[in-house]
Every structure is written in structure tokens, then in C-alpha cells.
Design brief:
CATH architecture of the largest domain: 2-Layer Sandwich
GO biological process, one term: cell adhesion involved in single-species biofilm formation
CATH superfamily of the largest domain: Reverse transcriptase/Diguanylate cyclase domain
Pfam family, one: GGDEF
Largest sheet: 5 strands, mixed
Strand order of the largest sheet: 6-7-5-8-9
Order of helices and strands: HHHEEEEHHEHHEEHEHE
Number of helices: 9
Protein name: GGDEF domain-containing protein
Number of strands: 9
Helix content: 40-55%
Strand content: 15-25%
Structural class: alpha+beta
Number of domains: 2
InterPro entries: Diguanylate_Cyclase (IPR050469), GGDEF_dom (IPR000160), Nucleotide_cyclase (IPR029787), Rev_trsase/Diguanyl_cyclase (IPR043128)
CATH class of the largest domain: Alpha Beta
GO molecular function, one term: diguanylate cyclase activity
Distance between the termini: 98 Å
Length: 297
């Protein structure tokens, strides 16, 4: 009887062990499925960004399905880091770029075979899509957004502003007497003036702002979280930097004029378009009253 009891207990133990192993295998399969689905959905259209950070955030989220202790992801060649660096990392194969998945703690089990290769291949594919999209949505001369990008990015800015009740100011800027620069010193010098202002604008705006080459020597800024007075302070700093830098062989200081409108929480795209028109009229007044100044609508 004791032997029979021992056999039954042994069989029960085997069945329990088998059931636990089956449950673990099913859970691993579910995690793999979620990981693969997240990778498949990773794309610039989903991340809604022109920068690689959104791609890396999506890739980190996908990796967490298989490695919940993942807390950071970095592609050093692109200066892209999301999450945090830790002493525990796994190297992601990425065509020569140094890429790492950072973990809160070392993995308790062996890393699933093929996991890092799949992750690296998908990151590489989507980053390439971001590069293509950036080329299509940026002005090749200044590196700023173009009009097409404005149509893409404006709804995101408006959604952010409405969500947090933040004002948005619209600024129209125009380089003073730019035609004289082209006529006197040639278009290559004029192009360098445009590049200079593009660099200044990129350095002067924040991540949430939009800086757009609107056409010719005219530029558009949409400043998130800024009322009109705050926007005026930003523009005055831009004007100062532009005036104090030189483009050879131009002997005189470069100046610009600007018009500002908005400064409230936008109700929608139609209102922002109205603010753009008002900022343009304010810019025209700045030109008519002597240039090298900022006018509020």
C-alpha cells in the first residue's frame, strides 16, 4: 500500500511539474507573440515623430514583453537614448552602430534565441524610414521643417496644447533687405545667410516648438507654452544672435523683422491659420515702420 501511495504521489508530482512546464512554455509563446506584434507595429506613422527617440521608445516597449527588466535603449551613433543606462546591458546587432538594451537586473534566464537580432533588424529598418521621412519633410538648405511638415506636425502640437491647456504663439520672421544680399553678393552668400538663420532658429526653439521655412526668406515659428510676451522675448534673442554674427563678405549687421500673433490656447487649425495671417500682417507693419523690429498683432 505504501508503495502504491508513493507511486501515486510521484505521478502527481510529475503531472504537476509537467503542467508547470507547459504553462511556462505557453507564457513564453504569448510573450513572443506580443513582442513580434509590437515590432510589426513599430513605424514612424505610429510613433508620430521625426526623431529617432520615438522609434527607440517603441522598440524598448516591444523588448519589455520578453524582458520586463529592460529599462533603457541606446543607439550611440545617433545620440539616441531613451530610458536609463544601467550597469547591465545586452548588445543589439545594428550594422556597426553601438546599440544597447539596458536592464534593471541581469536576466534570470537565457536571453531568447534570435531576440536581439530581430530587435536590431527592426530598429534599423524603422530608423531608415525616419531618415526618408525627415528628408521629405525638411528644407534641404536650412534643415528646418518645410510646409508639408507643418501640415503633418501642426495637429500634434494642437493636441498637446489642448490637452495641457497651453498657449501657442505664432511668429512670422523675414530677413531684412535679403534681395540686396543676393543682388550684391550672389546667391551662394544669400544661401549662407539662410543657413545661419536656420541654425539660430534650431538652437532657439524647444522640442515641442515648430520652426518652419515658410518660403524664400520668410520663416514661421509656433512656440508651445508661450504667450505673446514670452514669444517676443524668444524673437528678440534670435534677432540679437542674427545681428551679431557675420557672413563674409557682407560688411554690415544682418537684421530681421517679425510679427507675433496668438498667445492663447488654440481652438483648432482654423484659428492657427488665422493667427498666421495676423502674424504676417504684423510682420508687414514691422517692415513698413522701419524694419529690424518686432510687432505684436
Amino acid at each position: 500500500l505504501f508503495a502504491a501511495y508513493t507511486g501515486v504521489v510521484g505521478n502527481l508530482g510529475f503531472l504537476l511539474s509537467w503542467e508547470q512546464a507547459r504553462a511556462r512554455a505557453e507564457e513564453r509563446a504569448r510573450r513572443w507573440t506580443r513582442f513580434l506584434e509590437a515590432l510589426a507595429h513599430l513605424s514612424p506613422s505610429v510613433t508620430q515623430t521625426l526623431s529617432p527617440e520615438g522609434v527607440l521608445l517603441g522598440a524598448l516597449g516591444a523588448a519589455q514583453h520578453l524582458l520586463p527588466q529592460a529599462v533603457g535603449l541606446e543607439v550611440r551613433g545617433r545620440r539616441g537614448l531613451v530610458g536609463e543606462r544601467t550597469p547591465h546591458s545586452l548588445t543589439i546587432p545594428l550594422n556597426g552602430d553601438a546599440a544597447y538594451l539596458y536592464l534593471r537586473t541581469p536576466p534570470e534566464e537565457p536571453v531568447p534565441q534570435g531576440f536581439l537580432s530581430l530587435l536590431g533588424e527592426r530598429i534599423k529598418q524603422v530608423l531608415k524610414q525616419v531618415e526618408w521621412g525627415t528628408l521629405a519633410l525638411t528644407d534641404p538648405l536650412t534643415g528646418l521643417l518645410n510646409r508639408r511638415a507643418l501640415e503633418t506636425e501642426l495637429p500634434k502640437l494642437l493636441a498637446l496644447a489642448r490637452r495641457y491647456g497651453a498657449p501657442v504663439s505664432v511668429v512670422m520672421l523675414d530677413i531684412d533687405r535679403f534681395k540686396r544680399v543676393n543682388d550684391t553678393y550672389g546667391h551662394p552668400v544669400g544661401d549662407e545667410v539662410l543657413r545661419l538663420l536656420g541654425r539660430i532658429l534650431q538652437a532657439s526653439v524647444r522640442r515641442e516648438d515648430l520652426a518652419v521655412r515658410y518660403g524664400g526668406e520668410e520663416f514661421l515659428l509656433l512656440l508651445y507654452g508661450a504667450n505673446r510676451e514670452a514669444a517676443k522675448e524668444v524673437v528678440e534673442r534670435i534677432r540679437y544672435r542674427f545681428r551679431t554674427q557675420r557672413v563674409e563678405p557682407i560688411p554690415y549687421p544682418l537684421t530681421l523683422s517679425a510679427g507675433i500673433a496668438g498667445g492663447e490656447v488654440p481652438e483648432g487649425e482654423a484659428q492657427v491659420e488665422d493667427w498666421i495671417l495676423k502674424a504676417d500682417y504684423a510682420l508687414l507693419r514691422a517692415k513698413e515702420t522701419g524694419r529690424d523690429r518686432v510687432t505684436l498683432a
